């Protein structure tokens, strides 16, 4: 097992990509704290992991709430004695052209991705620095590295998370902390399913055209990236044994973006 008894926090872990990673981490032996805005769904996911033989706890946590993040991390440390891996994965999307974008919508996307990633980072680093170091991971996107129309706040926030990841790699190194950002292409989760009709309406094309001409147009094979693809990479990055791999963005996108 590649993550035997490693204690991991995954935000936005109740569904989608976060849930897939939580389940994969548990299969690799990690003890997984599933944190989510939807506390009941986080508990359900943790129970499902335990039913499959893993170790998990569910936490209600809004990553934009400073006290909630600090409280959640304290609970993990109180119950399990430390924190080795933290993945800032919670995220939302908002589709609008820039000239019609409400300030409140811009701020909401920034808060969840950037403020959330910062608060999780700070709370996790305090524990990792007090222990033997650890691994910070961020759920970026191909949009950490390039832009698409109608997604300005998301693109800006995901680029910001790349900057945070790199800052953590520099500051954390002397404390034994490594930091990397995962950059997936499109994965069929509730987040993506919601934006297909929204983009179709905004662009005046069919939903099938959004999939083939917008989302998958620049992939090498017209395929969606899967939750399993992303979770395998997340295990690999968490288990990687040295700081040879730190401050990196790793793209998993069927060739949509090549760096
Ligand atoms: P999803 O909508 O299926 O799941 C997101 C989860 O985050 C949900 O459980 C939701 O309750 C939780 N969440 C939202 N706001 C939160 C908050 N304030 N505090 C705590 N939890 C919160 O989305 P997903 O597709 O699984 O996306 C997960 C991450 O992967 C996001 O950061 C997203 O930007 C990123 N990503 C997704 C894709 C994709 O194609 N699906 C591609 C690249 C990156």
From TrEMBL:
NCBIfam families: PRK12429.1, PRK13394.1
PANTHER family (alphabetical): 3-OXOACYL-(ACYL-CARRIER-PROTEIN) REDUCTASE, 3-OXOACYL-[ACYL-CARRIER-PROTEIN] REDUCTASE FABG
Protein's UniProt name: 3-hydroxybutyrate dehydrogenase
Homology family: Belongs to the short-chain dehydrogenases/reductases (SDR) family.
Domain of life: Bacteria
């Amino acid at each position: 097992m590649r993550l035997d008894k490693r204690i991991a926090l995954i935000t936005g872990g109740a569904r989608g990509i976060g849930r897939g990673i939580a389940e994969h981490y548990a299969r690799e032996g990690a003890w997984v704290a599933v944190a989510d805005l939807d506390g009941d769904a986080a508990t359900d996911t943790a129970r499902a992991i335990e039913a499959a033989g893993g170790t998990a706890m569910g936490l209600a946590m809004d990553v934009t709430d400073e006290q909630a993040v600090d409280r959640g991390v304290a609970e993990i440390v109180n119950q399990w004695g430390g924190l080795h891996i933290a993945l800032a994965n919670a995220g939302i999307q908002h589709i609008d052209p820039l000239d019609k974008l409400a300030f409140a919508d811009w701020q909401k996307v920034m808060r969840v991705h950037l403020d959330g990633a910062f608060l999780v980072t700070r709370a996790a680093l305090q524990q990792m620095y007090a222990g033997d170091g650890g691994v910070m991971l961020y759920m970026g996107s191909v949009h950490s590295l390039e832009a698409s129309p109608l997604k300005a706040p998301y693109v800006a926030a995901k680029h910001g998370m790349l900057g945070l990841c790199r800052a953590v790699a520099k500051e954390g190194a002397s404390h034994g902390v490594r930091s990397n950002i995962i950059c997936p292409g499109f994965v069929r989760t509730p987040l993506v399913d919601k934006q297909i009709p929204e983009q179709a309406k905004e662009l005046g094309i069919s939903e099938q055209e959004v999939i083939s001409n917008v989302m998958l147009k620049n992939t090498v094979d017209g395929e969606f990236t899967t939750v399993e693809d992303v979770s395998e990479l997340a295990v690999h990055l968490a288990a990687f044994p040295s700081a040879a791999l730190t401050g990196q963005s790793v793209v998993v996108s069927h060739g949509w973006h090549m760096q």
